[in-house]
Specification:
Number of strands: 12
Helix content: 25-40%
CATH topology of the largest domain: Isopropylmalate Dehydrogenase
CATH architecture of the largest domain: 3-Layer(aba) Sandwich
Distance between the termini: 10 Å
Shape: globular
Largest sheet: 12 strands, mixed
Radius of gyration: 20 Å
Number of helices: 11
Strand order of the largest sheet: 3-4-2-1-5-12-11-6-7-10-8-9
CATH class of the largest domain: Alpha Beta
Strand content: 15-25%
CATH superfamily of the largest domain: Isopropylmalate Dehydrogenase
Structural class: alpha/beta
Oligomer: single chain
Order of helices and strands: EHEHEEHEHHEEHHEHEHEHEEH
Number of domains: 2
Length: 335
């Protein structure tokens, strides 16, 4: 894959699995045909994380993204922000500060046009809160940095078998019915359709919209939300020329034959979307933020402090996040 600009990978929490997975992905760059990327974070952490994983990964310190092309083939480029010691599985405030600095720096480089896309390593939000991070997560931080309202930054989880978008995300299940509106569903589904056209090259996206209740409410016998909220949202999408259909019974949407009939499943809440995605594509799931002026992806897993430094963390999601970021960036840049 050829990209004129490299991808920026923010290191995430240095005590988590992000550093070793960045190193492992670079070690597999040729076999996986990965686009050039550089780590924003700590050269020392990357070197020691690679060594702990048993990898021979030389590091090349860079001061700007335009230096990446000259060394990526032979070494992992790192924009060095802090000379922290590597202490896997032991998060602290210094590591959280590095994670926040790396996220802000990498986001700024992509926004300025110096890097092609942003890939974010996993962070611990509770740790970030201790050092002044007031956003619910990295998605909201990146959206604000790009001047986008959090309501217009849509989370899509994508894998080889399935793409899903949860309309409501990190909220209690009991709160979901009160948060759902036809306008919210219409807005997030429309952003999804536009992103599938622009970033994924799907000329006419097909959106399967899940019902909220069992059997999509069964004509109101098991809740009125599907007839009063979800169905009107689907009608609004179709009026706008978007190929949306539903509400569909959620329990019959995700088998192979059903999946062949759509490009993305629009789901009403977190687990309705993420359970089938992780069941089908656990090692290749990517978190993508839609609706931004930049491309942003992330591996679909957390910091995994419990296994950091043991060499057992799976590199598949990181490779998938890098590859997807490169694919989307190439489409946006017309390369």
């Amino acid at each position: 894959m050829t990209l004129l600009l490299p991808l920026a990978y923010s290191i995430g929490d240095p005590a988590g699995v992000g550093p070793e997975l960045a190193a492992a992905a670079w070690a597999m760059r040729a076999d996986e045909a990965l686009p050039p990327f550089f780590v924003v974070g700590s050269a020392r952490v990357i070197e020691e994380a690679a060594r702990r994983r048993g990898l021979s990964v030389p590091v090349c310190a860079v001061k700007a993204p335009d230096e990446v092309a000259g060394c990526f083939a032979d070494a992992l480029p790192v924009l060095d922000l802090d000379d922290l010691p590597y202490d896997p599985g032991t998060p602290d405030d210094a590591g959280a500060s590095l994670a926040l600095n790396a996220l802000a720096t990498a986001t700024g480089l992509v926004r300025s046009g110096a890097a092609a896309a942003l890939v974010t390593g996993p962070v611990a939000k509770s740790r970030l809160a201790r050092v002044g991070f007031y956003h619910p997560g990295q998605t909201e931080f990146v959206a604000e940095a790009c001047g986008i309202s959090p309501e217009n930054a849509v989370m899509m989880l994508a894998g080889p078998s399935l793409r899903v978008v949860p309309i409501t995300v990190h909220v209690a299940l009991r709160d979901v019915p009160d948060l759902l509106t036809a306008e919210l569903i219409r807005n997030r589904a429309a952003i999804t359709a536009a992103a599938l056209i622009r970033d994924y090259g799907i000329a006419a996206p097909r959106l399967a919209v899940a019902g909220l209740n069992p059997h999509a409410g069964e004509d109101g016998r098991m809740g009125s939300e599907d007839t009063e909220i979800v169905a009107p949202a689907v009608a609004l999408l179709r009026e706008a020329g978007i190929d949306a259909f539903g509400p569909l019974p959620p329990d019959t949407m995700f088998h192979a034959e059903a999946r062949a009939g759509y490009d993305v499943a629009i789901c009403m809440y977190h687990d309705q979307a993420l359970i089938p995605l992780k069941a089908l594509d656990f090692d290749a799931g990517v978190n993508v933020t839609l609706g931004l002026p930049i491309v942003r992806t992330s591996p679909d897993h957390g910091t995994a402090f419990g296994i950091a430094g043991t060499g057992t963390a799976r590199v598949g999601p990181t490779i998938a996040a890098l590859r997807m970021a490169g694919d989307c960036a190439r489409r946006r840049l017309g390369q």
